[in-house]
Amino acid sequence: MKLLTKTTLYYITVSLFIFFIGGIGIYQLVKRLENRKVIEELTDQMHRFAFDLKRIKSDMQQVTLITGGLIQLEHVHEIKQPKIQFADTLIFDNIRNRFAPFKRLTFYIEVQGLLYKTSIYKSLIESNYLIEQVALIVTIIVIVFLLAVYFLYRYFFGRIWADFFLTIHKIQHFDLASPVKLDFPESMIIEFNELNQVLKKMIDRISSDFQGLKEFSGNLTHEVQTPLAVIKSKADLLIQDPDINENQITLAGEISRETIRISKLIKALSFFTKLDHNQFPDKQTIELDKIIRSKLEVFEDFMQAKALKVNLKIISHPKISMNPELADILFTNLIKNAVRHNIPSGSIDIELEQKSFTIKNTGKNIDIDPEQLFERFSKASKNSESLGIGLSIAKKICNFYGFNILYGQKEGYHTISINFNS
Amino acid sequence: MKILLVEDEKGLSASIQSYLKMSGHICELAADYQSATEKINLYKYDCALIDINLPDGSGLDLIKKLKADNETTGVIIISARDTIDDRIKGLDLGADDYLVKPFDLAELNARIKSLFRRISFSGSNIIEVGELSIYPDEFKVKLGDELFDLTKKEYNLLMFFVSNANRVLAKETIAEHLWGDNIDMADSYDFVYAHIKNLRKKLQEKGLHDYIQTIYGIGYKFQTI
Description:
- The structure holds 2 protein chains of 2 kinds.
- By secondary structure, chain A is α+β, with helices and mostly antiparallel strands.
- Chain A has helices at about 5-55, 60-65, 125-170, 190-240, 245-275, 290-300, 300-305, 325-340, 370-375, 390-400; strands at about 70-75, 85-95, 100-110, 115-125, 285, 310-315, 320, 345-350, 355-360, 405-410, 415-420.
- Chain A has 3 domains: about 5-145, Beta-Lactamase (2-Layer Sandwich), CATH 3.30.450; about 190-275, Methane Monooxygenase Hydroxylase, Chain G, domain 1, CATH 1.20.58; about 285-420, Histidine kinase-like ATPase, C-terminal domain (Heat Shock Protein 90).
- Chain A is built from 10 helices and 11 strands.
- The longest helix of chain A is centred in the first third of the chain and has 53 residues, at about 5-55.
- Chain B has 8 helices and 14 strands.
- In chain B, strands 2-1-3-6-7 form a 5-stranded parallel sheet, with helices on both faces. A 4-stranded antiparallel sheet of chain B has the order 8-9-10-11, covered by helices on one side. In chain B, strands 12-14-13 form a 3-stranded antiparallel sheet.
- In chain B, strand 10 and strand 11 (about 145) form a beta hairpin.
- Chain B is globular and about 55 Å long.
């Protein structure tokens, strides 16, 4: 859930709860006030009426007519408790032609020696109307307020958290390999400034480590090659020396060979670092069937010499967006691996589909965990010419592009498959 | 052939110079950008071997200058950098070839000869080795008037031997020349052996002298003297 959605929900829930309680309270309060007002008015009227009545000398029948039915007099012989009673009642309203709510005050009065039960009626229509109006206004205020809170909150939310979202955006688009430095603008909010400072410190540290490692591996690759070239050239010259004996020439040959091995090892290791540092950014659309065909051609001699049978099954022609150098290395390594570890008169089956590439070769059974096979310097055979990193390079390239690479071994067949779509 | 070698690493330039002298070339040294520029201004070279990273400048600028002054000078870059980008940059400036350090002196020698054949004698280029005549522009070998039938690999092998005649060639060097440096196949030495056996057989069938000597423990030598 987004920060905005979450906080808005909290705000609205809490506001609704408060307004619900508040609304009920206001309603009850207004109702009680109105009720008290009506009771006061009735009481007041009762006293005035009683006072007036005592001064009347005429027939009591006429009194009822004058008051228009809102005061009723009934001759009784005794007083029933309570002496003064308020009650809500419905009376049929002739004019409006419907029942209307009234409040009735009943009391006893003695006039000219006779006891009368007197009822004074007061219409509640107006006070009910008032209560309804108050309730309506309160409801409207609540809705307006909620809407205002909602929109104002969204507006202020955007303003307050803007720096925070800017920070997130900057981090998301930050690339260690790019020379652009990460810079956060000053924020009005202390916490965000603190966050930015911490992030900046962390990223600066990572950047400098990254740069250091990049330089180190760059130096290692290039600077070491020159002395290696010197050693190799001296060994080469030594081999040409007419006075050298058989034993010495073998030693010179070994020096030359091992020098090349160091050079290749360093290049392969620095390749891992380069891949880790995303130093192969440019991508092209690679037509896999073409690259596979050209790689098979490169290894043709070796396949012929081993009398390998190659079956190339191209089911579809996938085009993959990747760095051409990496594509070249990946397929060279896989095909080289299938040729190198093959048996005489064996076979290589290659299948290319829209989403996958599979290479299956005959070979000796190896006793090794499939996962270990992709690790650096793990060798199934004591083949000292192999550096033991061909497959780990292949795996690294696959990981780099999010491809899934799997190894399987069954009945003398070794299969490596790549799924481009994972 | 007159070659200018621009390389700041003294140990390497001395080795290259010795090897090229053995092959009958004249090789002049320049250890930095400054002295290389002076030499380019004063003399004309058939070929220049240039290291890109020089203490006082870039070898790439030297290539520009060389190609501007004299189009026919062949340029081979010798560099420790081997990314595709570096190669493209160098070749775009007009370099003819690119060798990555550490390289084999025999390979360098073969590249120089091949480059020289490409740029100096256009078309009418024949290499005589005993009774054999090699036509490098047509990838053909003749024995008198008769075409000497060789596979592509055998032809490449013969050319490599001829370019480094009377030199000991390690079998790795031959393998790398024939299949490139990323084919570090263990079996490649067996294939070198197989190809050499075939070439030898073909030479013997024609009643030719056995030029190819096996040097125990290291490789082969193409003996013409």
